[in-house]
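Journal club side-thread
Mid-discussion, someone asked how the predicted structure for our own chain would compare to the paper's figures. Pasting it here so we can look after the session.
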Amino acid sequence: EVVGLAVYRIAFGAVLLFSIVRFVARGWVGELLLDPASHFTYLGFEWVRPWPPWAMYGHFAAMALLAIAILLGFRTRLAAGLAFVLFTYAELIEKASYLNHYYFISLLLLLLSVVPTDGAFSLAVRRGRAPATAAPRWAYVVLRAQVALVYLYASAAELDAEWLVRAEPLPTWLQAHADVPLVGPLLVAPWFAYGLSWAGAAYDLSIVFWLAFRPTRAVAFLAVIAFHVTTWLLFPMGVFPWLMIVTPT
């Protein structure tokens, strides 16, 4: 189990680093956080404001360094705790740019500030700061429970008439792919949106149980990859599909 947690730590750190670099490279620090004259704020967090430009970019540089520390297993829990504070602060600046997978990242960072994940493949072990021993069972349970909640909440949101009877918003989203060669007409066919809606609901409802059952875990993980690569190709979901691919590790 210690190896599984270490692999997850490495994969999560890599996705987090990619997300931060991507956010900066696409100019979103300026566009979403620095340039607006005013911001929509969260109740109770009206005091959260963007720093001056040099400090805001320093804020993101610090997050990138902390992501590298998590990836390498260097003071992982401290790095995750600091990254949780910085990442969440950046998200609280602008309510209008809320994304549920950024909220998910904050929750995972908070858990990684408590869960021991540097018992293998880490600088902590290499430098003798952490023993290469088995991880406690609760560490796996906590992380798996968090992932399970994401899927279960997603499935609960899909069990309504909008999603199952009218297949919305998939027909609207899939119109963006109408001009794709060969498969464009298929993607905008009404039956395809319905099939995708029902398949998505069935996936979210059942995948946690297939992943938890050892005989079906390998096949279920292949389904996770196929599902999230498909959503990444069809919809503008950023790093969320890759985050959900690495979480079952």
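Post-session note: The mean pLDDT is 90.
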